[in-house]
Amino acid sequence: MTLIARADHVGSLLRPRSVTEAWAAFAKGELDEAARRSIEDDAISVSVRRQEDTGIGAITDGEFRRDVWWSGFIPYVEGIELFEAEQSPFANNADEATVAYVPKLVRTAGLLTHPGAAIMGRNYTYIADITNCPVKVTIPAPSRFHFQYGVDAIDEVLYPDRDQFWDDVTAVYKAEIAGLERLGCTFIQIDDPILSFFCDETATEAMQAQGEDPAGLLQEYINATNAAVADRADSTVVGLHICRGNARSNWAVSGGYAAIAEQVFPRLDVDVFFLEFDDERSGDFEPLQLIPASTSVVLGLVTSKRPELESPDLLKRRIDEASQYADASRLGISPQCGFASILEGNLLTEEDQWTKLRLVSQVAQDYWGS
Question: What is the share, in percent, of the chain residues with pLDDT greater than 70?
Answer without folding.
Answer: 93
